[in-house]
Amino acid sequence: MTEIAADLIAMAPAPDRLRGEGRKTAISAAADRIATPNVDPRDFDAALLGLFARGRRSSAVTLATLSAIFAAIALTWIEVDAVVTWLCVSLAAQILTQLIARRFPQQDLSHADTRRWRRDFIVTETIQGAIFALLVALVGHAEDPAALACAVVMGLLIAAMNATISPSIPAAAAGGMAPVALAMLSLLWEAHLAEGAAQMIVLGFGAQLCFLMLARKLYASALEALSFQSEKDDLIAELEQSKANSDLARRRAEEANLAKSHFLATMSHELRTPLNAILGFSEVMKGELFGAHIVASYKEYSNDIHASGHHLLMLINEILDLSRIEAGRLELKEEAVALDHIVEDCRHLLALRAKKRGVTINEAVEPDLPRIRADERAVRQMTLNLLSNAVKFTPPGGSVRIRIGWTASGGQYLAMRDSGPGIPAEEIPIVMSSFGRGALARKNAEEGSGLGLPIVKGLVELHEGTFILKSNVGEGLEAIVIFPASRIIPPGAGLDMDLGAARQRRRARREARQVP
């Protein structure tokens, strides 16, 4: 149906599809960038400086406490005045670092600003490292092996603190650890060191190098985390844009669907009005109600006009039915329906057509089937569509077998199997789509619009049922309609009636119609 209305309703499918493909490409590219990030430190200078500033602000109390502990331990080997002076200088340097860190702006910075802030942080870290290195040197020069061990431990603690607090600026971390490493090297030249002291200092110096490498690793991890965060933000932005475009496309599709429904409703009225006149006048001309035709061909033309008009009216009705089903606007008028009665009526309607084609219709119905809760008109339409298809595609001398019975889950099924050529498995999705026709139907130019099976499928789904096609090429096609157990009306439920009496009344009415 969309194909019919494509020239009259502005659906704009191509741009939407292109935009959808573009969004998929953008999202895939963002996912690839996250999987294999290409990190450039210059892209994250301000973010790295921000990490450093936050780290310094959060470690103020820890560094002050560590300085106080170092000063208290140093009192064992150094005079009080020197220790107090060192502690004041150390705390002043830390206060300076805190002031600079707290003044660091949160907004984006220019390249010149980032260079200035990085320089300030490196200078303050180097000053703090030099102050700690002074204490390490003073303690290590004491004439006591325990003092040397204490100095080495102090150096390791300082290196550990710098490696964990300052990794986002590698130069600042190196500036904080380099003075302590130099102080340890200066202790190594002292001749009065006790036995094993040199090995201890070398071990401490090597640990400094390890902490420096750790700082480099943490710096790389910070870069990668920032890269992931940036790519994630880009992906979220693209997804939000995709969602907005999708909502817009959905609204356009809903508007197009409303326009299509309005178009079909209008066209059905405009087409049915002249069609009624065509069918009525052609029937009068075909029946020669006002006298015989002078030219015999006129009667044949009248028959053709009537048949074509009837076919066009049927096509319009099918299109409208499928449109209502697809739009979810077909309301079922549910009542108690005897499936075998409807099948028997439909079989009688198509008996003459089957006889002309030399097709035999066999019926097998399980006894005592209760009624089902369904729309009688919809069930009748499903049955007529399936049975007419079976008769149409069954070759002369073939047969159509109709079966009605119970399913394993307690529902009822209607199955129709013909002895025709069947449909290849790859063509089943085609014939189930709107206006879809199999290769055999196109080859033989079989009459039909390709809407029968889609309408059956839609009506079955409205009844919460299942529609199945089974086909073997050269052996025939079987169409199965399954109604769920929830639609079975138990006998004596108030909606049931005497099915035997109803069947007899139907048979009597048919026999009365056949009597000349």
Tags for this model:
two-stranded antiparallel ribbon, 516 residues, alpha+beta, Heat Shock Protein 90, 17 helices, rod-shaped, five-stranded mixed beta sheet, disordered N terminus
The run of helices and strands is HHHHHHHHHHEHHEEHEEHHHEEH
Coarse structural class:
alpha+beta
The rounded distance between the terminal residues' Cα atoms is: 44 Å
Q: Mean pLDDT across all residues, rounded?
A: 77
Strand order of the largest sheet: 2-4-5-7-6
Ranges where pLDDT stays below 50 over 5 or more residues in a row are 1-24, 33-37, 494-500
Describe the structure.
With 516 residues, the protein is of the alpha+beta class. It has 3 domains: 41-226, no CATH class; 267-327; 334-514, Histidine kinase-like ATPase, C-terminal domain (Heat Shock Protein 90, 2-Layer Sandwich). It contains 17 helices and 7 strands. It has helices at 2-5, 13-35, 45-58, 60-74, 80-102, 111-140, 145-165, 170-188, 197-287, 296-327, 339-349, 351-357, 376-393, 428-431, 439-444, 452-462, 499-514; strands at 334-337, 360-365, 372-375, 399-406, 412-418, 466-472, 476-483. It has a 5-stranded mixed β-sheet with strand order 2-4-5-7-6. A two-stranded antiparallel sheet has the order 1-3. A hairpin with a 3-residue loop joins strand 6 and strand 7. Helix 4 (60-74) runs antiparallel to helix 5 and helix 9 runs antiparallel to helix 10.
